[in-house]
Amino acid sequence: MHGGGVLLSVCATACAAVIGVRQARKETREAREARESVWRAPTPGAGAAGGRAVFGAVALLALVPFLLVTLSHGYGAESRISAVPFREILDASAHADLDLSDVRAVNLVGNVLLLVPFGAAAAFLWSGRRRVLKTALAGAVFSLIVEVAQYVLSLGRVSSVDDVLLNTAGAALGAFLVRRWTGRTRARRLTLPRPSRAGGRT
Fold first, then answer.
1. Residue 14 clears pLDDT 60, i.e. is over it
2. Which of 17, 33, 85, 188 has the maximal Cβ count within 10 Å?
3. How many other C-beta atoms lie within 10 A of the C-beta of residue 91?
4. The pLDDT of residue 136
């Protein structure tokens, strides 16, 4: 089930990337038109609000693969709790022959990738330098709720603190990639030509 969830997560990431690129191009085009026209005043507030609404919807959709995987029935007879941090991560990493055919490797990689699309989309909901931290905290809270639900619903899964850590890392990774990308986009916007008072370009 993790393999299918990772595939869905990759698809969600691709969709988020496409929407993000189109939104960024739209905002860049509007900013260029506003600067080139002396009669048109820029309206960044409306564009920003529309962008947040779009990425808020994408963030919710990106959680669907995560919920399909984490809230499905596991292979265990009963649910249990693993409350020791890094136990499962270190146990899986200790095997030299670990590859993607190993269920432990799929579990580690999958728990990170599943929240990358959410982190990438949710990062657009905040501004400033702490967007990665805010997104990571949102991912951690959501992951913790899911782990508790797994145990309460008796899904035959291991409610692990390591899963929360890996999910949080995935959300933070998505937000970090967005921050790097938007930083480059913002730098390109600052180089756009500004109209002079006579209507020409400076």
1. yes
2. 17
3. 11
4. 95
pTM across the whole model: 0.71
Banded pLDDT at 145 (limits 50, 70, 90): very high
Question: Taking the CA of residue 127 as centre, how many other CA atoms within 13 Å lie in the half-sphere pointing to its CB?
Answer: 6
CA-CA distance, 30 to 127, in Å (whole number)? 19
Q: What is the C-alpha separation between 139 and 165, in angstroms, rounded?
A: 9
SS (H, E, C) the chain: CHHHHHHHHHHHHHHHHHHHHHHHHHHHHHHHHHHHCCCCCCCHHHHHHHHHHHHHHHHHHHHHHHHHHHCCCCCCCCCEEECCCCHHHHHHHCCCCCCCCCHHHHHHHHHHHCCHHHHHHHHHHCCCCCHHHHHHHHHHHHHHHHHHHHHHCCCCCEEEHHHHHHHHHHHHHHHHHHHHHHHHHHHHHHCCCCECCCCCEC
- The mean predicted confidence, pLDDT, of the chain is 75
What pairs with residue 71 in β-bridges? none
